[in-house]
Design goal:
It is built from nine helices and 15 strands. It is an alpha/beta fold.
Length: 334
């Protein structure tokens, strides 16, 4: 792409990012690379797009250590419903962390009613994982619960599944690209935005072994998406092709923002370091914005404090300094 055109794209992106100050959970701030990857696309006979999709899916598989990645046009919620219907069977244990784990439980119970392969759905609080012994066939969890700013190390969830004789299914929407250990899960679902830093509209199911359950739905069958029988998330994938080779640089901006936030708000943190996700921080204070351009995160769970998300400076990469946090004002009481 010519240099003058690149400059125009970068200027456009900079202007858009100046117009909004994001403290939300994703998508992240806009990247020039998001736009540089866009192109006319078609799913059949388009060798250029086929190469783009192959690059992106190979990178995603390498990021999480899974052999297969199915791509879907839709949100992470679609990926999670497809996972529940296609993979879950027998006795299922859902780890209760908040709003998003409640959604997982609902999806498991829905799959139980519709498929009949699931015999039981139970839940346990995340604080009680050391007491779980099973036996279960599947442990289902949300490794980063944005509604409460909570991180459960994937290694802890994997140990729980192993101790129970179970496989592990993860909602990785808020952990993909940011947290380690996804390879320890048998199947994960996530979206093209948040910690991948792509545009919205794409979702992914990563796994090692193809499930053998037959799903009585064209749209909700994993096989349909693996065989590309419908329009895919072409432009969401294209928005990632120039981002993923530089993902570490963009991730550094999240790390810088998180580090400054936890340092400045050390006395108000809800959770210890081991339970702190990179994506966001839960504090026991009410946070407000000093600039009308700011968009604060409103969790789907009712909280006494606030959840601050750290994706608003991704476009700055390693040059980020966490200065976006200067637009926040913290109240004296929760």
């Amino acid at each position: 792409m010519p240099t003058d055109r690149m400059t125009r794209i970068e200027d456009f992106v900079a202007e858009r990012n100046r117009a909004k100050i994001l403290f939300t959970a994703g998508p992240a701030s806009l990247l020039p690379e998001n736009l540089q990857g866009l192109r006319p696309c078609f799913g059949r006979g388009d060798e250029d797009y086929a190469a783009v999709e192959e690059r992106v899916l190979t990178a995603l598989g390498g990021m999480t250590g899974h052999r297969r990645v199915a791509r879907l046009q839709g949100s992470a919620s679609l990926a999670l419903e497809i996972m529940a219907l296609n993979f879950l069977y027998g006795k299922v244990l859902v780890v209760d962390t908040g709003y998003y784990s409640d959604r997982l439980k609902w999806l498991a119970e829905s799959a139980q009613r519709r498929q009949g392969a699931i015999t039981e759905v139970r839940s346990t609080g995340w604080e009680d994982l050391e007491h779980v012994s099973g036996p279960f066939d599947w442990v289902v969890a949300c490794s980063v619960e944005t509604s409460r700013g909570l991180r459960l190390p994937i290694a802890l969830l994997a140990d729980t599944a192993k101790r129970s004789g179970a496989r592990l299914m993860l909602d990785a929407t808020a952990s993909i690209g940011l947290e380690s250990g996804h390879e320890q899960a048998d199947v994960i679902g996530y979206s093209s935005c948040k910690g991948l830093f792509g545009l919205t509209g794409g979702a992914f199911v990563a796994f090692n072994e193809v499930p053998d359950q037959e799903v009585d739905s064209f749209y909700l069958s994993l096989e349909t998406h693996l065989e590309r029988k419908m329009t895919g998330p072409y432009h969401a994938i294209a928005s990632l092709v120039e981002v993923l080779p530089h993902h570490d640089d963009f991730r550094a901006a999240v790390e810088i923002n998180k580090a400054r936030c936890t340092e400045e708000m050390a006395g108000w943190l809800i959770y210890p370091e081991a339970q702190q996700p990179l994506l966001c921080t839960y504090v026991d204070r009410q946070v407000s914005a000093t600039d009308p351009r700011a968009i604060l995160y409103t969790p789907r769970s009712k909280l006494d404090g606030s959840v601050i998300c750290h994706l608003g400076e991704v476009h700055l990469g390693r040059e980020a300094k966490g200065e976006i946090l200067d637009y926040l004002e913290v109240s004296a009481h929760g």
